[in-house]
């Protein structure tokens, strides 16, 4: 009997993904994305299989196009189709104001909030002795060199309110202390243990406006 996606029930997760089963392979890959478990991945796959011409094939083409075109910005670490990215190339940005974030998702959250009109620097993570992440694993030296270049007038630390975020912030303050540039950090509104990319726009804007010396 031919496969009918409109009535098919996707089987429970196998202990190992059969290499010749494209449906299970797709579920497995989607379930590895942040915020998607196997149940959500199964629902998404079933929905796409019910209308592959309008949902699955355009998605596949968009994924391929993005994979080929998007690259990290060599200046700040943002992801864009241009290098330097659109933010770094924008002459309307305050070029003396650099906001340091853990990842691109935090950068996008701050842009969504519209609270920061300067530039960014993506570290690519936070320091963590348990995870084996040291200063050499992050974009810290490029930040120091960027600040030492003389154009930066203030560095804003917009790091997560976690132990790792606090450790990274203290390390950055020590590294930047010899340079004549003030270092500030986000103030009220960011709860302990909170990630920036899940906060509402108003909270992010208030935290940026009320930043304090680091």
Automatic annotation (TrEMBL):
Zn-finger segments (C4-type): 73-88
A Pfam family recorded for this sequence: RecR_ZnF
Toprim domain sequence ranges: 96-191
SMART domains with a match to the protein in the record: TOPRIM
The entry's keywords: DNA damage, DNA recombination, DNA repair, Metal-binding, Zinc, Zinc-finger
Presence of keyword DNA repair: yes
InterPro entries for this protein: DNA_Rcmb_RecR, Rcmb_RecR, Rcmb_RecR_Znf, TOPRIM_dom, TOPRIM_RecR
Family from the record: Belongs to the RecR family.
Purpose of the protein: May play a role in DNA repair. It seems to be involved in an RecBC-independent recombinational process of DNA repair. It may act with RecF and RecO.
Family annotation (NCBIfam families): recR
PANTHER family linked: RECOMBINATION PROTEIN RECR
Entry protein name: Recombination protein RecR
Organism (species): Muricoccus vinaceus
Lineage: Bacteria, Pseudomonadati, Pseudomonadota, Alphaproteobacteria, Acetobacterales
């Amino acid at each position: 009997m031919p496969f009918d996606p409109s009535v098919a029930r996707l089987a429970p997760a196998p202990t190992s993904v059969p290499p010749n089963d494209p449906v299970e392979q797709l579920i497995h890959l989607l379930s590895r994305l942040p915020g998607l478990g196997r149940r959500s991945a199964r629902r998404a796959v079933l929905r796409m299989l019910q209308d592959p011409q309008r949902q699955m094939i355009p998605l596949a083409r968009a994924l391929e196009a993005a994979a080929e075109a998007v690259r990290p910005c060599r200046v700040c670490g943002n992801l864009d189709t241009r290098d330097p990215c659109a933010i770094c190339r924008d002459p309307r940005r305050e070029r003396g104001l650099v906001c340091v974030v853990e990842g691109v998702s935090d950068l996008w959250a701050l842009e969504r909030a519209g609270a920061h009109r300067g530039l960014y620097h993506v570290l690519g993570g936070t320091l963590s002795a348990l995870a084996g992440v040291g200063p050499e694993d992050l974009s810290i030296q490029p930040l120091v060199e960027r600040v030492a270049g003389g154009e930066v007038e203030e560095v804003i630390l917009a790091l997560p309110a976690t132990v790792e975020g606090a450790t990274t912030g203290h390390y950055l303050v020590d590294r930047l202390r010899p340079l004549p540039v003030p270092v500030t950090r986000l103030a009220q509104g960011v709860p302990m243990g909170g990630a920036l990319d899940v906060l509402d726009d108003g909270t992010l804007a208030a935290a940026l406006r009320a930043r304090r010396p680091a």
